[in-house]
Amino acid sequence: MDRLSLAPDGLASASARSGARFTPERRLAGLILVALGLRIVFATSLGLGMDEAYTVATSRDFVLSAFDHPPLSWWLATLGHRLFGESDLALRLPFILLSGLTTVLMFLLGRRLYGAEAGFWASLALCCAPVLGVIDASWVLPDAPLLPALLGGAWALAHVFFDEDASRAPLWWLLAGLCSGLALLSKYHGVFLPAGAFLFMLCSPRHRAWLKTPWPWLAGLLALALFAPVLIWNAQHDWASFVFQGGRTGDPRLNLKAPFLLLGMQALFLLPWIFVPCVFLLARALRRGPAQKRDFLLACLALGPVVAFTLPALWSASRVLPHWAAPGYLLLLPLLGREIAEAFARDVRWIGPAVTGAGVVVAVLIALLAGLANLRLPALSGARYPLLETLDWTDVSDAFFARDLAREGAFVGASRWFEAGKIDAALGGRFPVLALSDDPRGFGATRDPQQFLGRDAILVGRYLTLEQAHQLYEDHFDSIEPLAPISITANGAPAFELKLYRGRNFHDPAPEFTLGLKPVHARAARPNDPH
Q1: Could you report the per-residue pLDDT of 290-308, keeping only the tens digit for each?
Q2: Do 483 and 441 meet the contact criterion of CB atoms below 8 Å apart?
Q3: Which of 81, 80, 93, 51 has the alpha carbon at shortest distance from 68?
Q4: Angle, CA 505 vertex, CA 504 and CA 506 arms, to 5°
Q5: What is the Cα Rg of the chain in Å?
Q6: CB atoms within 10 A of CB 472
Q7: What's the confidence (pLDDT) of residue 2?
Q8: Residues whose CB is less than 8 angstroms from the CB of residue 442 and which lie 6 or more positions away in sequence, other chains included
């Protein structure tokens, strides 16, 4: 039997002693409102990051799937700018609203496993983890739909495995399959949800019998059916997304320090007082095994992302980014919520100030970032704007139409994919932007250079010198002429310059501009409307 085998509301809690006014459910509602407010402040203070602008740019037309990831975040971005507009908050709004669902599902999972108090404290821990409760909850990123899908699947599995009445288990299995499919539509991390459930059933003799029933397999077929758009898109594009993601670790090269550095970065992204207990609770749950069945289920679900995106640092020649493992730590938060709830039940003196301090730290961090975003650095100070990657390039739009650059060329050709994203986001889709590069990413599958043959282009690059422009593009244009650069400003102070060139008569586009792929649908030129 579990150390804490309880009915959903069985934990003796501080809220019960203080009256029904402060039930976990009511505190959860307050938490969600406060968290949404802070996320809106965060989202309105910072411009679109490089990845966000790129996602927005490549989602202007509906895509069956995307080059980098499965398409759900692209679909949400399409929804954002079609329903709400082109402001940063409008584009991020679907993702911010989705974060409220993530918080609710964390509460439901924690309540089902360990009681309502544990569910509330798990939800608070989620909101206090910067990578999970702020960044993934506010920005245009694939993790925003991934997190609720993982939690919804884990919640369904908890009902399958631990409900005394098994009559509704088939429905819970189908919900688990639905959530697995949505997770797979969000990010390839979604594969770890069914994999973790399978591992749990293999290791737990009591639950292994489920493998002899049709329900886990029907759930898997449902998930696969929802994943079909990704498979169809990849079949049309020579499995480009799978090849790209499979090759991100680079050539093998032993690096004994890298996993420890990566763990340190993971701790910063989660904050150490969340990361360290989660690692300890994961190790303890694995050591105790299926005897502590609820803990072990969470450990099985979390193990894949944590291991798969930490151990490869040992041999990867490329960077393994710290946020890649965050979905694994997400599934350990109900364990942390239980520990906090038990500490409150035992009247541990330091636990109240500790959780209050954790919340204050996150609020202060958001306030500091908002302050930095509005910081004006005089040009003569020589200081670099501290949030350069989240700076909106609105000066591009202003200069583009003020200088009538729309008449200078039929399209914009950026020398790097992330600069193409920034430029497209700044222009709001009013002028076609291509990534004329040997690494165009999603632009290579959605923007067909053949549509612009015989037209002039405005060639743009932050570090693109005239010599480099000739080296890159002289075979594709009759001539290349320098134009006056555009100064990108941060709160009125110059931050950097974008170099501009006019390319005459575009011809002979290189296969690299589309990664050798045929775009399924091309973005043709639209009327140049400065308004």
Answers
A1: 999 999 999 999 999 999 9
A2: no
A3: 51
A4: 110
A5: 25
A6: 19
A7: 45
A8: 54, 58, 63, 66, 67, 68, 417
